[in-house]
Specification:
Blueprint lengths: L3 H33 L3 E4 L5 E5 L5 E6 L8 H30 L5 H10 L5
Antiparallel strand pairs: 1-2, 2-3
Helix pairs in contact: 1-2, 2-3
């Protein structure tokens, strides 16, 4: 049988757990909202190629200026891929910052989320 003092301690512990769960859920919702709205655009040095990445660092847009027409296709492809690499790296950095600001970079969850943005694509 649990005495009243012991029961109060158990209830206090349960209340603490619940508050911790609620705080982590709120942090996760905030991080989710921030990541859902995160986009990054990177341009080639000459501004003729621009790519945009969105959720998860996935390519969401490519813009080619008319001046690109005179270039060989292989050069254009390299410019697109280079801009994509820059955009994805910037996306990962911003996502890592958002994670650190919301759930914390030192927590196991934060470290797992951050690591997921720096994995090579499959």
């Amino acid at each position: 049988m649990v005495d009243e003092g012991g029961l109060d301690a158990v209830e206090g512990r349960i209340d603490g757990w619940q508050a911790g769960f609620e705080q982590r859920a709120a942090q996760a919702r905030e991080l989710g909202a921030r990541l859902a709205g995160l986009t990054v655009t990177a341009e080639s040095d000459d501004g003729l190629v621009a790519v945009t990445v969105g959720q998860g660092g996935r390519l969401t847009g490519v813009r080619l200026e008319e001046g690109i027409r005179g270039r060989p296709a292989g050069e254009t492809a390299r410019e697109i891929l280079a801009a994509l690499e820059v955009a994805q790296a910037a996306f990962a950095d911003r996502a890592a910052s958002a994670t650190a600001e919301t759930i914390g970079a030192d927590s196991a969850t934060g470290q797992a989320v951050i690591a997921s943005f720096f994995r090579p694509p499959t």
